[in-house]
Amino acid sequence: MNQAGTYISVLMRQLNLFFSHELSEVEITASELMYLSQLYTRDGLTQDEMATKISVDKAATTRSIQGMKKKGLIVRDSNKKDHRSKCVYLTDKAKQMEEHIREIQKKWSDYIMQDMTVSEAELFAKQLKQMSVRAREINE
Hints:
The chain is mostly helical. It has helices at residues 2-23, 30-41, 47-53, 58-70, 92-112, 118-138, and strands at 45-46, 74-78, 86-90. A hairpin with a 7-residue loop joins strand 2 and strand 3 (86-90).
């Protein structure tokens, strides 16, 4: 198990390099991709929801959101349920990029899982999810 952390770290660094290279033409960073992916799944999340979901501190989330706003990828609007927070919405520019971004994500996952069966890949994802939940629990 000692090497699992090393492999996860290598995988994350390689993932970031891959996305940075593949997304350079559309000027989206790998960290911005994490937020855009969440919004493609559910538009209108609050910044706090986004930060919590990917275990990133609020300051880093704010910086990424500000960068995406400057690029015209998102807009922020008052949360109708809680006026102290802001909801984040995709712009048409970001929505038009979704298919391209999904293709890049698929290219990555298809490549790294090419020697796995579908059931092996699903089991691996399930195990990673369990490990993520436990990691959050120990740090609460």
